[in-house]
């Protein structure tokens, strides 16, 4: 007889008032993780978990569920044996454990563990009905969703993003009895969904879970997010082509628009060509950030706009002309505002805005934005001097630092904050500022996010570093160090940007010196502890460097430990004093691990490093000539080791000076056989000789080899065959 395992499908739909796009996006992501984990925890295998969502609903379709859990055995650990049994008889601890597990005391077993003998029991657990498990799980799936500004509705205490209006909980054709009670208002599960609010206002009956998408499609609801993405992308691109243009599909805008509509229709609108005299950034900001429109450019790589826009409607496609006219009135008014602000701003020079910065507070204890500008100028001067820039470059840096925040009090940026820096650049050109100054005003805000570009000019890089360094020192100086996920001043991002800008521009700055100098200025002005401030900042930056090396440069964790040191002040200071060097050493170590070169020297260098720790040689000495006593040699391997280290000195010194660590590695690889003879074979020696002078002499040899290797990294931190 063949037993057939009947599999079931399940549909959950939570119907709501219109959800914010941001909540919907987050809820879909959370369910994609939460629901499969919940099923796994409840031992419910399945074929697929499909998550859907529109502004009026969240849904999950689970295919291939068993009718019930499989029966299973579970082993439970109980109290220690000595507590459970006394003189062979069960104690109250044993009886209590057995009762809790629903078994007889005689079923308890004593087994040895690493922590002694313990009581165990094997339980046979009968599988529960899938329907019962889902009925219990659904409320958690719904009300464990996180989001901003959850609301209460009616007269109850339930909180969700928007009021819940209907509920479908369908296991094949069986409705699971789910009730959402919100005091006087109760929503009961059923088979009834709702169609598009405008195009199909009637209810929709879902006969079985797998009919969900097709049933809603007939009701003008596209429940599948990816289908809406594809539809919107195709329609927008086709609409742009019809107007001989190219539509830029911004990912963030696309994600938001997708979650604002249930039945998308691309609608083209127009505006007066005279508005094209505005900077294109103003027009696109109005369209994208404020109106959720897709702008149309003349060509794919062009910055020139056409006097058209594309909006994605959730209304009746047959009324697209009316929808277009309504949106045209809105965009016309917004662009007219932008033109007024722009014309008003360019009547004066960018510098003339500076006095207004006095009235804008950067931070209560730190004073105005104008004071921050002065501090940026000071820090920028410190950075410029470290880079040994010429007088003109320094002049440009000081001018850019002075003007970098001026546009914040302009009419345009007040209305459209997203344009900070962008308008500063435009107004700088209008004020006949040098190109380097104008570009730096824009660039000093870069990067604005994780995937943004970095500044590319010297002036922009220096002002960007100065601005962020001032913020870090000032906020840290007030004791407002980021904890957990709380980072209101984006200090982690600021520190990361400083390191990335330095690496990208190959800037030879001494970060530790900058931290100490800037912290000293702050501590003197605000009567703070400079040493603690510097220590906190150093630790903060080192964590950022570590993260960047591992996550962005893809360096193995042990190699990162090797270049940054593990509680090794020498390495941490070295890293902060020369950010380029710590990057280059990490990349080089990863390279020689990948090509196998590291394996050739690892054993000898690592072994020497570990033994050298038992000696008293400092970590700076490289030359053995005035340190190691040749008259104490007892084996030829000692003199060979000595001569090898002596010959290595010029290679290591050259590697130090030129940062060409291949020279050092080549030298270490060359002497590796000599060091091996020192450790093993007929001419090997016992390093820890009974004679203290001989022992110290041999430890000196090992310490010298360690020191040569330390020019690159701490080999003691490197793990073999990672």
Overview of the structural elements:
By secondary structure, the protein is an alpha+beta fold. The chain folds into five domains: 7-68 and 129-218, Alpha-Beta Plaits (2-Layer Sandwich); 72-125, no CATH class; 225-345, no CATH class; 350-582, Orthogonal Bundle (Hypothetical protein af1432), CATH 1.10.3210; 596-717, Isoleucyl-tRNA Synthetase, Domain 1 (Orthogonal Bundle). Helices cover 49% and strands 15% of the residues. The strands form seven sheets. Strands 1, 2, 3, 11, 12, 13 and 14 form a seven-stranded mixed sheet that branches. It has a four-stranded antiparallel sheet with strand order 17-19-20-18, sandwiched between helices. A three-stranded antiparallel sheet has the order 4-8-7. Helix 11 packs across helix 14. The longest helix has 26 residues, at 320-345. The chain starts with 6 loop residues before the first strand and ends in a 12-residue tail after the last helix. The model has no long low-confidence stretch (mean pLDDT 94).
């Amino acid at each position: 007889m063949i037993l057939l395992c009947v599999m079931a499908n399940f549909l959950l739909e939570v119907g709501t008032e219109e959800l914010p796009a941001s909540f919907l996006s987050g809820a879909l992501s959370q369910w994609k993780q939460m629901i499969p984990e919940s099923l796994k925890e409840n031992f419910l295998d399945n074929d697929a978990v499909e998550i859907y969502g529109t502004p009026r609903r969240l849904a999950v379709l689970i295919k291939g569920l068993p009718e019930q859990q499989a029966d299973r055995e579970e082993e439970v650990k109980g109290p220690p044996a000595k507590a459970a049994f006394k003189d062979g008889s069960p104690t109250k601890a044993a009886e209590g454990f057995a009762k809790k597990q629903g078994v007889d005391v005689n079923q308890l077993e004593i087994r040895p563990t690493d922590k002694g003998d313990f009581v165990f029991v094997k339980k046979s657990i009968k599988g529960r009905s899938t329907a019962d498990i889902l009925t219990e799980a659904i409320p958690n799936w719904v009300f464990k969703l996180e989001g901003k500004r959850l609301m209460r509705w009616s007269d109850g205490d339930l909180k969700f993003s928007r009021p819940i209006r209907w509920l479908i909980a369908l296991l094949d054709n069986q409705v699971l009895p789910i009730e959402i009670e919100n005091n006087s208002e109760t929503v009961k599960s059923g088979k009834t969904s709702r169609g598009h609010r405008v195009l199909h206002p009637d209810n929709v009956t879902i006969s079985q879970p797998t009919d969900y998408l097709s049933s809603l499609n007939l009701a003008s609801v596209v429940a599948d997010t990816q289908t809406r993405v594809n539809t919107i992308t195709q329609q927008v691109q086709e609409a742009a082509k019809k107007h001989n243009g190219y539509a830029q599909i911004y990912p963030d805008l696309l994600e938001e628009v997708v979650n604002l509509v249930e039945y998308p229709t691309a609608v083209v609108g127009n505006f007066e060509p005279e508005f094209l005299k505005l900077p294109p950034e103003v027009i696109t900001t109005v369209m994208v950030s404020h109106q959720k429109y897709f702008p149309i450019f003349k060509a794919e790589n062009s910055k020139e706009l056409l006097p058209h826009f594309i909006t994605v409607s959730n209304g009746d496609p047959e009324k697209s002309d009316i929808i277009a006219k309504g949106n045209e009135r809105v965009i016309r008014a917004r662009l007219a505002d932008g033109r007024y602000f722009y014309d008003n701003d360019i009547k004066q020079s960018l510098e003339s805005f500076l006095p207004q910065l006095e009235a804008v507070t950067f931070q209560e204890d730190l004073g105005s934005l104008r004071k921050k500008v002065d501090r940026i100028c000071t820090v920028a001067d410190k950075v410029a001097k470290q880079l040994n820039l010429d007088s003109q470059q320094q002049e440009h840096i000081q001018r850019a630092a002075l003007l970098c925040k001026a546009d914040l009090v302009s009419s345009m940026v007040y209305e459209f904050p997203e344009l900070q820096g962008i308008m500063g650049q435009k107004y700088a050109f209008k004020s006949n500022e040098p190109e380097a100054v104008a570009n730096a005003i824009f660039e000093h805000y870069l990067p604005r996010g994780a995937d943004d570009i970095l500044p590319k000019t010297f002036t922009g890089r220096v002002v960007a570093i100065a601005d962020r360094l001032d913020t870090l020192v000032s906020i840290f100086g007030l004791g407002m160090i980021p904890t957990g996920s709380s980072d209101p001043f984006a200090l982690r991002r600021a520190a990361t940007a400083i390191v990335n800008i330095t690496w990208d521009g190959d800037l030879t700055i001494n970060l530790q010196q900058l931290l100490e100098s800037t912290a000293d200025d702050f501590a003197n002005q605000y009567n703070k502890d400079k040493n603690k401030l510097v220590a906190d900042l150093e630790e903060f930056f080192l964590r950022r460097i570590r993260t960047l090396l591992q996550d962005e440069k893809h360096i193995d964790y042990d190699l990162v430990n090797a270049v940054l040191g593990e509680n090794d002040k020498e390495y941490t200071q070295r890293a902060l004093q020369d950010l380029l060097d710590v990057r280059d050493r990490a990349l080089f170590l990863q390279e020689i691990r990948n090509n196998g070169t590291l394996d050739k020297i690892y054993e000898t260098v690592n072994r020497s490093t570990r033994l050298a720790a038992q000696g008293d040689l400092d970590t700076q000495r490289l030359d053995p000539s005035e340190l190691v006593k040749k008259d104490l040699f007892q084996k030829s391997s000692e003199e060979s080791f000595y001569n090898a280290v002596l010959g290595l000195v010029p290679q290591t010194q050259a590697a130090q000076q030129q940062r060409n660590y291949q020279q050092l590695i080549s030298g270490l690889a060359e002497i590796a056989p000599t060091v091996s003879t020192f450790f093993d074979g007929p001419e090997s020696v016992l390093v820890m000789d009974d004679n203290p002078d001989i022992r110290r002499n041999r430890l000196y040899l090992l310490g010298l080899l360690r020191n040569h290797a330390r020019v690159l990294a701490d080999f003691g931190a490197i793990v073999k065959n990672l």
